[in-house]
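Students often ask why inverse folding is considered easier than folding. One informal answer: many sequences map to the same fold, so there is more than one right answer. In these notes we will look at a single instance of the problem. The structure comes first.
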């Protein structure tokens, strides 16, 4: 694997050509437990954890934190699959089973947030791979990450399919008292048969909607990224209605549809899956995605219009971000939480 050659293209408190970690800092582990059967973890000590988003990106944020590479959610459409090729790792099964863990992420983030160069910009998490995937139950990186952001009153957002986020509910509530906190849960459909085949390592859609309901009940407004809407498999009017109705019933503050996009790395893996499970759709997909990674504008607009109309019908309104940012002083009576294993449940 290519550890030393993995470099950052942007600069923040380090030279632009610095390797993100060295080969001598890698420890490879496997765990003899059912939930991690067949999965290999590569523990590394990263040299930077704040990543600047390229200027040409469509993303509405400039900075991200990704404590993991690779994802046991094993979503067949995941756009992040290509990132595994940077390490000479397979973008198919390898992406699902070879997980890179940045074990020093919390301490490194705390140090970088304290840098005079850092201006307190918004930090997005879960934008590459899910920070609440199964590995987080063992490595417990997010409590330290959230504590570092809370203590600097640094605004942040999280996108996840993982129910494990509820473990950190208290930290989210504390953070929301001093800065802007945005949480979104990804639920593209509620069809259980489709879920089992395209998102085999994720919690069921209804369990994710339970997360939305719980966060909302505890004062953490939670939106839903309705993604992906999968052409010809999850885009029928009745399917869209069922999904938006369930999202509304869970108390989501907003719903944002996103049509499936197939970037290199993900495209090959998804099309191979499609050929095995739905061979009659292969030609239709080749035509729909003939011009690139994204479905045609007319198709995207149609899905967006339908979902927005349904959201209005079911009374889902827009979210409004706050503006508060106050440094939280540590309570000397608070004892640090000792990390320990957490049992995860997918169903």
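Output (designed amino acids):
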């Amino acid at each position: 694997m290519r550890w030393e050659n993995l470099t950052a293209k942007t600069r923040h408190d380090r030279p632009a050509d610095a390797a993100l970690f060295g080969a001598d800092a890698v420890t490879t582990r496997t765990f003899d437990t059912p939930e991690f059967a067949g999965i290999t973890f590569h523990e590394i000590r990263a040299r930077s954890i704040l990543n600047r988003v390229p200027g040409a990106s469509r993303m509405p944020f400039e900075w991200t934190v990704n404590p993991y590479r690779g994802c046991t959610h094993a979503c067949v459409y995941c756009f992040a699959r290509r990132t595994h090729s940077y390490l000479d790792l397979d973008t198919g099964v390898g992406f699902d089973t070879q997980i890179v863990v940045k074990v020093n992420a919390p301490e490194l983030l705390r140090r970088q947030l304290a840098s005079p160069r850092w201006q307190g910009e918004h930090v997005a998490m879960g934008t590459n791979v899910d920070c609440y995937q199964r590995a987080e139950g063992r490595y417990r990186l997010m409590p330290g990450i959230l504590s570092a952001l809370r203590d600097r009153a640094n605004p942040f957002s999280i996108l996840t399919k993982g129910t494990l986020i509820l473990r950190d509910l208290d930290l989210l509530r504390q953070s929301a008292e001093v800065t802007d906190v945005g949480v979104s849960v990804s639920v593209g459909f509620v069809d259980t048969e489709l879920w089992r085949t395209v998102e085999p390592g994720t919690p069921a859609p209804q369990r994710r909607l339970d997360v939305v309901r719980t966060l909302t009940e505890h004062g953490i407004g939670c939106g839903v990224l309705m993604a992906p809407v999968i052409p010809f498999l999850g885009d029928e009017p009745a399917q869209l209605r069922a999904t938006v109705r369930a999202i509304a019933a869970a108390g989501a503050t907003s719903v944002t549809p996103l049509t499936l996009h197939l970037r290199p790395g993900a495209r090959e893996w998804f099309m191979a899956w499609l050929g095995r499970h739905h061979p009659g759709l292969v030609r239709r997909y080749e035509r729909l995605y003939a011009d690139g990674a994204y479905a045609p504008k007319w198709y995207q607009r149609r899905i967006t219009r339908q979902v927005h109309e349904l959201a209005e019908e079911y009374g889902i309104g827009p979210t409004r971000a706050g503006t508060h940012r106050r440094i939280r002083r540590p309570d000397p009576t608070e004892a640090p939480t000792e990390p320990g294993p957490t049992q995860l449940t997918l169903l």
